[in-house]
Design brief:
Elements lengths: L34 H17 L6 H11 L15
Helix pairs in contact: 1-2
The structure holds zinc ion (ZN).
Length: about 80
């Protein structure tokens, strides 16, 4: 299974889970993302949205999601720092 954010393979965990993580709010929950993207993209964005929740509408959240992604997030060809 491929990560919906970086297009790399989602690794199977020790417990046998191979569906990765929920990439909301960057993608629909039916899409999945790898641990690296979850830790480096999705969670920081969620924290930012929680901090700003009183000001954000859905469209503002989309805007921030686009801005929160590093420019190389969609290369797909590069491996992650922690590998
Ligand atoms: Zn990923």
């Amino acid at each position: 299974m491929k990560c919906s954010l970086c297009s790399l393979d989602i690794e199977v965990t020790k417990s046998g889970w191979d569906k990765g993580n929920n990439p909301q709010p960057i993608r629909e929950p039916s899409a999945r993302c790898c641990d690296w993207c979850d830790k480096n993209l999705v969670i920081p964005l969620r924290i930012r949205m929680i901090q700003n929740r009183n000001q954000l509408s859905g469209k503002a959240a989309d805007f921030i999601a686009a801005r929160a992604l590093p420019s190389n997030a969609f290369d797909g060809g590069k491996s992650h720092d922690n590998k």
